[in-house]
């Protein structure tokens, strides 16, 4: 059975809406900064740090894409964007964007570790609320 984590863009987040293209930009930025760590250590860290490439199906254009790996310890991570209706507590509702990170059945424990790292990175950059795979919640946005 697939395992899911969610990054919820709450009203006090850096952004309240995100597209798959913006998520791809964060992916390339993340790959870039992890490769710089390898440069500082004088080691080819790029292949081991985040060994994924983007694969996009025509049916998921603009909604979701895969991070696919040919490395033997990693397989795939699925990332998607959607919206949900949230009750404000005063009888009104608002629309909230969230990012869903899914580990398909073919995913390995290595994928789960890399997905957790990437989730934390994204949530921190977006100042969002992160619901981890194990059900715990991490708050990266300023709380009152």
In summary, what is this structure?
With 144 residues, this protein is of the alpha+beta class. The protein is built from 3 helices and 7 strands.
Describe the structure.
There is one protein chain. The chain has 144 residues and is of the alpha+beta class. The protein has one domain. 31% of the residues lie in helices and 30% in strands. It contains three helices and seven strands; from the N terminus they run βααββββαββ. The chain has a seven-stranded antiparallel β-sheet with strand order 2-3-4-5-1-6-7, with helices on one face. A hairpin with a 5-residue loop joins β6 and β7. It is globular and about 55 Å long. The model has no long low-confidence stretch (mean pLDDT 88).
Layout of helices and strands, plus pairs?
Layout: E1 3-8, H1 20-41, H2 46-49, E2 53-55, E3 64-68, E4 76-87, E5 93-103, H3 109-126, E6 129-131, E7 137-139
Antiparallel strand pairs: 1-5, 1-6, 2-3, 3-4, 4-5, 6-7
Keywords:
144 residues; alpha+beta; 3 helices
Number of domains: 1
Q: Which regions contain 5 or more consecutive residues with pLDDT less than 50?
A: none
Q: How far apart, in Å, are the first and last alpha carbons?
A: 37 Å
Helix content: 25-40%
Biggest sheet architecture:
7 strands, antiparallel
